[in-house]
Amino acid sequence: MRPWSGERAGPLAAAALVAISAASGIARADPKLSAKQLAEEGQDLYEAGNYAEALDRFQRAEQTYHAPTILLLVARAQARLGHLLDARSVYDRVIGEQLPPDAPAPWRGAQEMAKSERDELGRRIAVVEVGVAGPPNGSTRLTIDGHARGAGDLAPIELDPGVPHRVSFYADGWRPEERSVAPGEGAHDRLEVRLQQTSAGSFLPPDVLRPAPLLAFGVAGAALGVGIVTGAMSLSKVGTLDDRCRDRVCLQSDRDTADSARTLGTVSTVAFVGAGLGIAAGITLVLLGPRFRSSAARITTAPIAAGGVF
After folding, report:
1. d(CA 213, CA 229)
2. pLDDT tops 70 at residue 152
């Protein structure tokens, strides 16, 4: 495997190995040797442009032996993949780490580089302000890519740029709305939504409601299966009794068979009723549930002062 070199990750990767070695005897510590090998593999992949696999190697190296220099490589690979929010979180870990007085110099250098690179990365993160018309102030709730915010939390949304994100709006007594946004790198945009009042009462979050019809139909299908199986078993036992009993008079030894046939028949009937209710519930949820207008959001550039939140 070739020595570490490269545009940005190379020098730091080499420093990471120096720091690992200096920290305490690389030749005597298997975790350090394993981290070195993983980091070298990650460096090769990084230089080849295979950032996803490079990230995997860097993360495994960090898990094997912690060093701020390796953690900085993790942040860089995440940034290359467009995972800017995750990368910023890792930069914060590097910057916030309390180093011991005798920490290797490359570790302290990694913290300084993390501060500079974090500032640059922050300018690339997209910010979307939201405005909601209709519900009273403080009553609107958001979910962003399925993650719920607290009621009334309409603070600007920070997003990884260049990929679609789902933003759902809901409030008690108002019809939910959903928008898809894909802001560009460094964008400062605004999303305006107007909710329509409804008499349907309280709505659950859209991401909770979506699978409800499928769940209802699934329960109905399971109940239908139980009804068919138990019904067939009941009919089989009834057929056996018909063959053994004359003029509807059965032997005492057939009592257990008759009881079992009645029980299976009852279970089958209940299961069929449950299946019917499940189908009815599924159809009701499909026809009467909240209707989401999933469409590309109209994004307009907001007059936000230069620099935004950063």
Report:
1. 24
2. yes
Instruction: Break the chain down into helix, strand, coil percent, rounded to 5.
Output: 55, 15, 30
Contact 68, 110 (CB under 8 A): yes
Cα gap 84→254, rounded to integer Å: 73
pLDDT of residue 233: 80
Q: Write the CB contacts of 148 (distance below 8 Å, at least 6 apart in sequence).
A: 141, 142, 205
pLDDT above 80 (res 253): no
- Give the tokens for residue 34: 């394993």
Domain 9-122 CATH assignment equals 1.25.40.10: yes
Amino acid at site 131: G
Domain boundaries, the chain: 9-122, 126-203+292-301, 212-288
Architecture of the CATH domain 126-203+292-301: Sandwich (2.60)
Distances in Å between the Cα of 61 and the Cα atoms of 17, 49, 66, 110 are 11, 19, 8, 16
Instruction: Give the Cα separation of 296 and 206 in Å (integer).
Output: 17
